[in-house]
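Subject: Predicted fold for 5'-deoxynucleotidase, 315 residues

User T.R. writes:
Posting the sequence so we have a shared reference for the thread.
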Amino acid sequence: VGLQRNRNKGPNFSLCFSPTLKKRKENIDKIERNQTIFSPKFKNLCLATMMAAKANPNSLFLSSSSSTHYSSFPFHQISLKKVSFLVDFQCRKLVFACSKKPIPGSVNLDPSISNSGSGSSKNDSDGASSSPSNAIDFLTLCHSLKTTKRKGWVNHAIKGSESIADHMYRMSLMALIVGDLPGVNRERCIKMAIVHDIAEAIVGDITPSDGVPKAEKSRLEQAALTEMCNVLGGGMRAEEIKELWQEYENNASLEANLVKDFDKVEMILQALEYESEHGKVLDEFFLSTAGKFQTEIGKSWAAEIHLRRNSRLGN
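User M.O. replies:
I've generated the structure tokens; pasting them so everyone works from the same file.
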């Protein structure tokens, strides 16, 4: 299995299958020599997905193309019989594969021109609940949140560092244990903490060190969120996820203010723990959050973490 760019015709790719495993591997090698843009890990995942779905054993070629530049068309859906691939051409990776039906919505995930709109299409039950197929596809897509390491720790060579899901889970616990606050819906805070980084299931953990402009980061995450809502099948639950994510992104409520503070509190608490466990000094995480807390809870919890850090460092 491999995807190959056709240089003469712009952003065209071919999904190629060979009749036998041996032939498939030979075909992969051949495509690689012709400058396939994907890694062996991607090809192995495609191969495993295709075999698991029992795709047609005969040689098949499927081309998908767009005249739009990659930056405006960050993701692309490729469907073949019972296998649907969602490919990120920019990051050169297979994002998602579902084995039953094409992913709902348009191939384009740019929210400004997507045919799928806001991802609010209703399912047969008016969106009250997702079908079992949509639910499992969505949860499978979210699996990468459990396995993708937070890049700030990776950049500091922290062994066994936390995943995106680890970070969101402890933020959710913060929202669960916080005392009642005037005008703040604690249940909404818990939900917001659970979904605030959910788009990273597709785009990964984009940090300032990546050099991606803030507006572009937001656009990519918005596009990914739209696709995730489509995978879920649209409806009320997808709309709730999208609304919670957008509210957090825009810092548009008291709940968003608090959850954004929890995001920073969780990070510096994790930094303190890694300093203790690995004997490192991780000043940048504390400096980057200084003076940026919006709520009294955030300020007081951060102050407690700083107090413990200063005590440990002997300051």
